[in-house]
Queue: 3 jobs
Job 1
Amino acid sequence: MKITDVTLTLFTWSGIPATTYGRHSGRFSGSSELGLLTLRTDEGVEGHAFLGSSMRSAAMDGASLIRFLKPLVLGQDPLERERLWQAMWQRNRATTLRAIGAVDVALWDIGGKVAGLPIARLLGAYRETAPAYASSAVLASMEAYAEEAAAYRATGWKAYKIHPPTDPATDIRVCQAVRRAVGDDYTVMLDSTWAYQYPEALRVGRVAEDLGFHWYEDPLADDDLYNYVKLKQQLRIPILATEYAPGGFTALAPWITAQATDYLRGDVAVKGGITPLVKSAHLAEAFHMNFEIHHGGNS
């Protein structure tokens, strides 16, 4: 079996409400472009993947995918996923992790279709379901967070994650309001989206710890390994970092050896596909660490 063509079809996603997830996202609204990636083979099997999100048009990654990754995979056996992923990774300075991830997902899609199995079974299969949590945008007031968290609890969601306004004093009040609204027995997490300096991160983290939050996510810059080590030494609440650890999945190694995070994080869409996600999961397993599967856009 050989790959004979690679296409990316862009289509408009309209009606996106004004939304902010933190300083990293800014405020976005209106429309975006999603992309449907298709890998075609000489045996008629096709692999598909999505590219793009509400805040990042697929056109931003699509051009480099077609220019740099399409020539790499044309004429190749789509079942040789590891070899092809390694070849794509060698071009990571010319393209993006999202583009590499989309091609990797499409290759796995072909593999599942050839085997006649869901990808979960190709990976070995462990469970039929996984728990999910509701995740807020940045909301207008602490009352809005409290009302939303209580509503999610009432409809059966098992946990709620706060994306706060990223002002430390305001963020503390938001955390306190949410805990009052949902009670002490409900799982709540805080994702501060890389917004704080170390003293602010420590101050907010202590409040989240006292409130019994489940984890404290990305309080510092994603390359601030030094201060993550300090922060983790001062707090009992589990730290969840590495969503955007620069350098791909191999960059997780220093986070582990420095004991800078309690969790590792995987994301199919923004971290290079299913192939590095599986490697990251086994890396976490080797160190008896939890591995949180994140949804960054269209995972």
Note: The chain has two domains: 3-121, 124-294.
Job 2
Amino acid sequence: MKFPTNPAQSLKLLFYSLLVSILLLYLSFLNCEPKIAKVKKRAVSLVPSITEIIFALGKDDCLVGNTIYCDYPEEAKKIYKVGDFSNPNLEKIVGLKPDIVFATMPEQKIIIERLKELKIPVFVSQPVSIDSMLKEIKAIGKILGVPQKGESLTMALATELDQIKPKNLAIPVYLEIAQTPLITVGGGSFINDVLNRAGGRNIFGFLTQEYPVIDAEAVIKLNPKVIFILHPLAKKEEVKKRIGWQKITAVKENRIYDDVNPDLIFRPGPRIVQGIKALMARISE
């Protein structure tokens, strides 16, 4: 074998040899690169609305536990149950070894404190408006590693919300969420914002509590034009028979509604547009 005696030729040959070696190494790297599996985040949801958000983001494969009230979509019923909304089982949650637990205040305050004591990360959901709900959806998307899906879901919801144009505005409305005692929604609540967007005016919107206890006389005095019963313990025919309520405009005009799915109103998540439209359709009748 003859070696080049010209220094220039030697350098040229060395250069091409080095180039070929780099190319072969690069191709080898492409063909033999080890497959590194992404670590799947393990999530437990104690909040039905967040369970719905997780499914809407396409991250239900991360959901290892939820509550008995997490019933939508249908697949959510198949997830391992850690208890009910008010009293989730701490041992069951810890046993699932979650990377993140989604909870809400104030009802789950005790379990949140216990989880923090155990150094388990907790995301506390407490939206007081549609806008804060959209921000939470974005935050959940980031936590679960799908920020783009979080952005696209919030944009889609915001677009749908902007298209909702109530025919009537500021119609006096009474929302009842419990019968004994009578409980309604105050001005600082998420549901108050939902009602406003549907064209209603909460007759108890001047109250600062989220869910204040009120008396029947106050409802009669404030005289709503529309009444929504958002709990299963009373029907409109029973409401009509309440003492003194025959004076209320909503009762006189038979504008009492007990047929709206409460989950569409109470759950700050992807189905809130349906909830607003359901309220608006009845307010506009």
Note: The two ends are 98 Å apart (CA to CA).
Job 3
Amino acid sequence: MKYLPSIKQLQYLTALAQTEHFSRAAQLCNVTQSTLSAGIRELETVFGVKLAERTKRTVIITPIGAQIAERAASLVRDAEDMMALSATSDGPLTGRLHMGAIPTIAPYLLPKLLPNLRAQYPRLDLALRETQTAILVDEVLTGKIDVALLALPASDNKLVEQPLFEDNFVLVMPATHPLTGKKQIDAKALNDENLLLLEEGHCFRDQAIEFCTASGLSKFSTLAATSLATITQIVSADFGLTLLPQMAVEKETAFDDKLTARPFKSPQPSRTIGLIWRKNSPRVADFEALGKVIKAA
């Protein structure tokens, strides 16, 4: 019988291919650098090929090493899925669950969601990560996280998408702006306005531009921000108008009397909030239970 590599050794190779750095790879695997280096050498002996070229400052994964690392990552994910599957025998939402959320959802929904999750599923050990959509999609696909909460669609056929609810867009403007006299806003009224958006990379920016373009709007401010909180403060200083998702309006405007929020006329622009996970994940029951708690939050 041939000697086969261990899952731990494959984890070492996956981490090294991801970081191209022995020290950082060791940190990812929670081992010492010498332990990881020894594991890679043992793996090279098992395969009979050079997996990485080492210098004092850099690590270069060899072409065959890259191919093996890609398959190793798949095997490690399968092993992690087996562990997750065994955990589901104790019931839904028990044990460790890695969840990601985008910045235009996390600060507004999670404070309501987390107490409900803790009350209903006290044995859940939830690890949270907040970052942009493209990164979350990649991390779900590679198994770094189990599930992500974001605006759909994620547009990848390797993922399952579960829509949860619609989140309308709202116009936020200085309280002194003439449009505050309107109960509902016609998008065409924004033609000559200075519209502030998030910086590139945020899906809410893309969704806002899609709505504006469909409404015949093309003028956007050269100012861009990394968060909705920053944008609303700029609007409060009378430097333009912006769109906010409905879930963010109370937190971002409630204590600022310099700001006014108004809904758009029907059909109101909105985004679909939902969960994504890998198609072959064994934790579908967990994700469906999570979706129910989110919808009720």
Note: The mean pLDDT is 91.
